Structure formats: C-alpha cells, structure tokens
C-alpha cells in the first residue's frame, strides 16, 4: 500500500465526524474553523460534565470527614491514577497537580538551583518555548552555566549536536518533546541516553506533544516532565511528573504540616479541583477513542490509551500532509520540517509566512472569513531571531488536532489563496 492509499485508509478509518459530535464548541461554531489549537484545544462534553458535576456535587475543600469533602479527595486520587496511565508513570504519587506547566518549570528550576555543586551546567535549546529557556537562565545568579543545543537549518534538534555539549559538569538537559511553534518532534529517548550516560538528568516540556502522540515516561527514560491540560482537551491546569525518588530529593517550599514527600511537597496551596476532574475525564475521552476503534473486553486502560493515541497520530499525519501541500501551493515559507519525506518528525502545527505580506493582516483577513489562526512571536524570541524574523511581526501559525478535517484544510487553502491575491 503506497502513502496515498495509507492516507485514504486512515481518513476512512478514523471516526472524525463521531468525534466532532462530542465537542459542544464545534457543534455551536457554525462555519468557524478552529485552527489555533496550539493555543488551547476545545473540550468534549464529558469533560464539561465532569467540571460541572464537581462544582455542583462537591465544590468544597478536600481533607474533611464529610461525604462531599471525601469525594474531592477521591476525585483527585482518580485523576492522579488516570494521568499516571496517560503518561505511563510508575505510580500515581509521581503526578503533581497545579496551575500550569510554566509554574512547575520554575518550581523545579528553583530546586535544582539549590543542588548545582560541581555539576553546574544546564543544556537548553533555541527551539523551545521561552518558559523552558528563561526559567533556567534565571539560575545564573545561583552559579549555573549554560550550553546551547541549537536547531539545525532543517528545522529540528539533532542528538549528534547534543553529545559534545554533555559532560561530567552537566546537571540537566532541558528540552521540548515537540516545538509548540514549528511542530518539530525531538528524539527524547536518545536525549535521555546521552544525558544519563554522563550522569545528568532530563527535563521535558511535553505541553505541545500531549494532544498529538503517546507519552511514555518509562520508555523515554526522562527524569521530569511537565504538561498542560488546556491543549489536551481539558480545562486550564498543569501537571508535573518526576521519578518518585527524584521528586523526594528536590527542595521545594512547603508549610510544616505538609508531608515531605511527593506529590504533597510539590503542590503548594489549593489547586483547581474542578479542572483536575476535567483532566481525569479528558484521559477517559482518549481511552474511549481507542476502545471504540477496536472494541475489546481484555484491554487495559493504558492499552486503550495506546490504541487511541496511535489512531490520532496516524490521522494527524494525514492532516499534516494535506496542510503541507496546501501551504506549498500557496507559496508559503514553512519554518521547521517542510519535507514530506520527513513528515514523521512533526505534528500538524505549521509556522509560516507568505513573502513580505504582513502576518497580522493575513490573520485578520482569515478571522473575517471565520478561520481562527495566530500570528506573532509564539513566545519563542530566540527561535524568531534564529529564523531572522522580527519579534514585532513574527510569523503565522495554523495548528490542527484530531477533530479537524481535510475539508477544513481545503477551505483554509481557498481562503489563503484569496487573501494572498487580495494583498499582493
């Protein structure tokens, strides 16, 4: 079966119409097309129901002896178990909930800043979200030194370039799993092999990869990982995973009455319980996709997640190929992986420009045509500089997830051609 036959089979097999019917925002949107999913995905009805049920049935503080409070404790425990399955953690106690990924990156960086000693070097990249760069650079005052792992001209990080940067002075390698701006996927398993061979740790920003592919912290052999629910079909919240013993060693702020062990030592203060309940439901939604595609009474929850995320990945490769072809047909300069033969190195998040046309103007014209995309620096100033793009204008980003369709891509292409003709 050739590529086009495979794409057609994937398009036919993936139940996108059934999936779209699960999302109230898509049903109410009319002609509007959501192509700004990298800034936040929509949520299925089951997630909305979970949030509403929490607020109506037990919107109280956890830790009490009465039924509603006990129900909150159980909801948080259930969510830990679900997220642990989602990322293949060894134990739910390794899952820490909070406001967002950025705050967790800062929390870990502050702890690591107190443990630098002779291992005082941190490897960072010029392809990451600035939250996973500036947060580490802030440790310079604590004595940290930095090595830059730089993206190649082909739009990705190469592990061969990482090897000479890592030594017995390396404390940590911090990198993304997938670039939120240009969609490139990093070989994080090899990153861990290189870092651990030198006795260093690995911190992964998995926020953008979360909705697109299977997360497996055991297979990746990383030490820390952060993710956010808002891209993963959940309300706004974030979670941190770390190896239990690693989190246990990490210095954190906590009140004296908080147990000095994960996850409690990491979760300072009250977090948004209803959104944690929503994250639990989002994991169950991904399980449902896998279960419905190949019904079986014998599969575990994790196996259903594996099946669901595998189907999503296959379908999104189809979307990525279609979007790549449309952008090239429109004369776009595509930043990141633009070779169809390397499509497996990316997710369907595309950063591009059209000649010297204003990104802002194109995005405004798209909005008039009921298509939501984004322009700007994408919170990646170092990447913009690397791409010779101005922080003021930046680039255009169109980002798809598994509830988008090939028809939406074609409508986007028609709109882009009309806008280019109008503005040229």
UniProtKB/TrEMBL annotation:
Pfam families on file: Aminotran_5
Keyword annotations from UniProtKB, A to Z: Pyridoxal phosphate
Aminotransferase class V domain boundaries: 33-412
Originating species: Mesorhizobium qingshengii
Record-linked NCBIfam families: am_tr_V_VC1184 (TIGR01976)
Name recorded for this polypeptide: Cysteine desulfurase family protein, VC1184 subfamily
Gene3D superfamilies attached to this UniProt entry: Aspartate Aminotransferase, domain 1, Type I PLP-dependent aspartate aminotransferase-like (Major domain)
Transmembrane regions listed in the UniProt entry: none
């Amino acid at each position: 079966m050739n590529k086009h036959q495979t794409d057609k089979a994937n398009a036919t097999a993936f139940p996108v119409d059934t999936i779209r019917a699960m999302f109230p925002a898509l049903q109410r949107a009319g002609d509007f097309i959501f192509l700004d999913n990298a800034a936040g995905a929509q949520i299925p009805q089951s997630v909305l129901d979970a949030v509403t049920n929490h607020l109506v049935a037990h919107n109280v503080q956890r830790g009490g002896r009465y039924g509603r409070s006990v129900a909150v404790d159980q909801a948080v425990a259930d969510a830990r178990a679900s997220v642990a399955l989602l990322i293949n953690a060894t134990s739910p106690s390794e899952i820490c909930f909070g406001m967002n990924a950025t705050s967790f990156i800062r929390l870990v960086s502050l702890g690591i800043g107190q443990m630098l000693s002779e291992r005082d070097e941190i490897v960072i990249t010029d392809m990451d979200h600035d939250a996973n760069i500036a947060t580490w650079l802030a440790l310079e005052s604590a004595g940290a030194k930095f090595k830059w792992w730089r993206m190649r001209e082909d739009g990705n990080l190469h592990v061969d370039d990482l090897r000479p940067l890592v030594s017995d002075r390396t404390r940590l390698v911090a990198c993304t799993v997938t670039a939120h701006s240009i969609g490139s996927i990093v070989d994080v398993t090899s990153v861990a092999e290189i870092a651990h061979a030198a006795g260093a740790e690995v911190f992964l920003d998995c926020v953008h990869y979360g909705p697109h592919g299977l997360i497996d912290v055991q297979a990746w052999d990383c030490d820390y990982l952060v993710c956010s629910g808002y891209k993963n079909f959940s309300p706004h919240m974030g979670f941190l995973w770390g190896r239990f013993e690693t989190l246990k060693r990490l210095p954190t702020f906590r009140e004296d009455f908080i147990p000095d062990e994960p996850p409690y030592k990491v979760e300072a203060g009250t977090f948004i319980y209803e959104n944690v309940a929503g994250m639990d439901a989002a994991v169950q939604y991904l399980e449902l996709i896998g279960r419905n595609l190949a019904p079986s009474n014998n599969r575990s929850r994790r196996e259903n997640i594996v099946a669901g995320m595998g189907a999503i990945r296959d379908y999104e490769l189809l979307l990525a190929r279609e979007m790549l072809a449309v952008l090239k047909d429109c004369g776009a300069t595509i930043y990141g992986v633009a070779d169809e033969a390397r499509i497996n190195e990316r997710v369907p998040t595309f950063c591009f420009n059209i000649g010297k046309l204003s990104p802002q103007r194109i995005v405004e014209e798209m909005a008039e045509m009921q298509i939501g995309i984004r322009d700007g620096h994408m919170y990646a100033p170092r990447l913009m500089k690397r791409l010779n793009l101005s922080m003021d204008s930046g680039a255009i980003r169109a980002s798809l997830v598994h509830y988008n369709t090939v028809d939406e891509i074609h409508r986007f292409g028609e709109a882009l051609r009309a806008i280019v003709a109008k503005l040229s």
